Amino acid sequence: QVQLVESGGGLVQAGVSLRLSCVASGRTSSRYAMAWFRQAPGKERAFVAGTTWSGSRTDYSGSVKGRFTISRDNAKNTVYLQMNSLKPEDTAVYYCAAGPELASSRNYNYWGQGTQVTVSS
């Protein structure tokens, strides 16, 4: 089992930056791919960014390419999402996920509880 805990969300103005963190515990020796999803009110949970265990491959949704960066520090069992130039449409609960494959689908084994990001104009 793997437990994931997100942090770093908050209420910010449009145009600023935030960095989200997700710390894993439990069976962290497994070489999981990690991903970030988000869910806005009234919408489905959607893929944002993902990375392989080594960081050699990353993937981003079209709406965040060029603004968000996913990275990980396996020694700290932590994955990050650096979010720049935030827009009101980025407002959502952000979840991290872990699984055996890097994919844009929601087919991941483990999920965090989510952290709220609110961006105002």
Summarize the structure in words.
The protein has 121 residues and is mainly beta. It has no helices and eleven strands. It is globular, with a radius of gyration of 13 Å. The model has no long low-confidence stretch (mean pLDDT 95).
Lay out the secondary structure.
Elements: E1 2-7, E2 10-13, E3 18-26, E4 33-39, E5 46-51, E6 58-60, E7 68-73, E8 78-83, E9 92-99, E10 110-111, E11 115-120
Spell out the key features of this protein.
seven-stranded mixed sheet; 121 residues; globular; four-stranded antiparallel sheet; 0% helix; 11 strands; single chain; mainly beta
Total count of strands: 11
Class based on secondary structure composition and strand pairing: mainly beta
Q: Element order, helices and strands?
A: EEEEEEEEEEE
Mean of pLDDT: 95
What does the largest sheet look like? 7 strands, mixed
In DSSP terms (H or I, runs of 4 or more residues), the helix count works out at 0
The CA-CA distance between the termini, in Å, is 40 Å
- Please report which band the strand proportion falls in: under 5%, 5-15%, 15-25%, 25-35%, 35-45% or over 45%: over 45%
Give a short overview.
With 121 residues, the chain is mainly beta. 0% of the residues lie in helices and 52% in strands.
